[in-house]
Amino acid sequence: MHTDLVAALDIGGTKIAGALVDGRGTILVRAQCATPAQEDGDTVMGAVEEVLGRLARSPLWERATALGIGSAGPVDASAGTVSPVNVPGWRDYPLVERARAAAGGLPVELIGDGVAITAAEHWQGAARGHDDALCMVVSTGVGGGLVLGGRLHPGPTGNAGHIGHISVDLDGDACPCGARGCVERIASGPNIARRAVEMGWRPGPDGDTSAAAVAAAARAGDPVALASFELAARALAAGIAATATLVEIDIAVIGGGVAKAGEVLFAPLRRALRDYATLSFVRDLEVVPARMGTDAGLVGAAAAALARQADTAAAVS
Amino acid sequence: MHTDLVAALDIGGTKIAGALVDGRGTILVRAQCATPAQEDGDTVMGAVEEVLGRLARSPLWERATALGIGSAGPVDASAGTVSPVNVPGWRDYPLVERARAAAGGLPVELIGDGVAITAAEHWQGAARGHDDALCMVVSTGVGGGLVLGGRLHPGPTGNAGHIGHISVDLDGDACPCGARGCVERIASGPNIARRAVEMGWRPGPDGDTSAAAVAAAARAGDPVALASFELAARALAAGIAATATLVEIDIAVIGGGVAKAGEVLFAPLRRALRDYATLSFVRDLEVVPARMGTDAGLVGAAAAALARQADTAAAVS
């Protein structure tokens, strides 16, 4: 990747982060504001414009050659629109057109947030050097993205790698997406916590019933807390094995709040993977923790913008 | 694709088919023999050499510029070896090296049989014009392959698209592959038939307990036969929806003996797909019957050889 400078946005249901990022992935300038997620679409766009405006006040802005956007999904990169589940005011919202205008006409590259995280882990993190990788976030939801043949695979609409909503239990519990037994329905933080409580786990004196509290109990040997993580690990393993069996990957990188549980999650996950990843070409699949921190979305959006520029330059030359 | 001539082999557990195929996919010369599947590896290779030898006796042989091989899997395209489940004499068998020698040094392109079928459907069949497609065979087993971004996606080892061995029921019945609840374990012909019998279905006076007989009973309204196809359809739908959610495809093409059941399979499959393919970017996924006949493996192996040649030519120029 060359040493251009690009602008990047990471748009989530809680915050909108922006940055100017150089060709090595270093963040040079930052801006951020809360997402007015329950307001109308133009108010949300106003917050995006505010972040871009702050970046544009930097003397480095004039060197920016493109804007990469990683957004909560679903996105539609082919139409240039987004419909984030947690931002009801944006439904088929023409984010690309509006962001391009707000960024003084810079070319815009839009990808889903799971794809952005993947771009970052592949460029600078745990998937670096791997030509075929799945990167995941296991947190309030479960998301992901794919690298295939050495390149990011966003898919035609920028949503590929949505591993949270594949069914690994076709008669399982109903998922808010409309399907049943989705990986997210079994393995997300809130579902790990809810299941532990349903199975009889009780929080300590602080009343904390989060997945982190269940992880702490599991670490201390609580059998119900361990069982809830075990089931999450099996669902993740079945989903990761399915991905490897379908597209051939040699590494799965897992980040997000639930991954912070460490071996409470990773030990049963590696065991379960031996049960589900059985064919010769998937048996050596590694599972490792993510290495990028909270800037992964920004760095990944920048990576996508830089990669698109490199493609365009190659096509022109 | 240009109008070169290539040699093609379709190697299965029952027969070894060979052909000379032109750049339009027309089969000009054929040769075939039974697979001595229970013999030692070199005896099986002898049958391959016999087929190639017959092709080489054609005056067209000297125009062949490459050999494409679609083989029963697993294959390892990166090592040039094959280990077909139904050919025990071939374990990590160096098929590419041996076939190259038998074909007078022609460059060899090896892919799995599911990938070969996919290449054929994309080139000339039901997936033609689709840049992102899953093609499947539902028969004694369940196999498949992927087209992503307009190109065949064999994966590094040539096995990508193995949809038969993704788990859609993580606590389901044990599959011979070692996992549980695999699509093949629920939806293959033998499993449809076995389940119907277990559920109380009885064959007619001819004693035929094949999936085709169950399909005929389902067509006549037998509720147990219908229920067995219904469950197969749900497993296929969950697997197809998982594939679409992971990599973004807009069409799934289904061939093989079980697909010949027609609407007995496709009607419940389309219904179940609405239950599992719920996200905006997968909701419009089509499912259609395959169009290529029994020559799909040969035509697809030829397509892979031609595509590799075109890539090599582009890289050189």
TrEMBL record, chains A, B:
Pfam families xref list: ROK
InterPro entries on file: ATPase_NBD (IPR043129), ROK (IPR000600), ROK_cs (IPR049874)
Transmembrane segments: none
Superkingdom as given in the UniProt entry: Bacteria
Residues spanning the signal sequence: none
Family the entry assigns: Belongs to the ROK (NagC/XylR) family.
Listed name of the protein: ROK family protein
Species name: Streptomyces thermoviolaceus subsp. thermoviolaceus
